[in-house]
Amino acid sequence: MAPDMGMADAAGTAGTAGTAGTAVETVRGAVYGPSGKRLDVYRPAGASGPVPTVLLWHGIGPDERDVLDPLARTAAARGLLVLVPDWRSDAADGGRAQLLESLAFVRKEAGGLGGDGESCVLAGWSAGAGAALGVALRPEAVEGWRPRAVVGLAGRYDLPARTTGTAPLADLAAGRDPGVPVHLVHGGHDPAVAAHHSRDLAEALRAAGRAVTLQEPETDHAGVIMTAYDPAADRCVPTTAEHAVAAGRTVTEVLAEAASGAS
Questions:
Q1: Which of 76, 112, 216, 231 suits 44 as a labelling partner, its CA being 20 to 30 A distant?
Q2: pLDDT of residue 16
Q3: Which residues of 115-151 are buried (b: 16+ CB within 10 A; e: fewer)?
């Protein structure tokens, strides 16, 4: 670990995860910026060289990086370096500073973690999906940088992105270009964010001649990240339900293909 990563409180653990049974190393609680927020790192154990990198943003629930643990582990077992930060949608700026701080951290530090921060996939679930696409559409928000690809999971794109303050669909209508492939996955049985939101975005991107893929696994809003919503806890929790496991495999393959540059 790089000595300036603020990881004195982080604890690394190794284990196995994912369908391939690849060992996954985890480092929890890295401080990623001035806000003091933390992120978790998932990477394949024993990788012989740099591996493709994914920055994965959670949804609107404040500081819910843990809900992405099942998906992040599965993706790391597939050979990806996955970084999952906390951020707070209830911050005064809607979470913008924290989201962009986490991106700056990944661009700077992913190399020391065995990945490539300058050529990473930017992915997000629910509110995190719009935030990810917003960066590609408005690279001036991050000094002109764009990700290798964007992966949006169960997102809405008609609402202002948390990273930019403008709706991705409005930016597309105004002629803005994401400049990179956009890959969408949306549960076909999503009662929280209807799948038409991803269909609408895919249609707008295709109409503009932009590269986009859309998959709709037979699952719901929580299942697309390998979880189930627990009303008692009012949060998503890991599940082994077949539809969620299958959706997680789909998302993992999309992430891996996006990271490899496959269309």
A1: 216
A2: 36
A3: bbbebbbbbbbbbbbbbbbbbbbbbebbeebbbbbbb
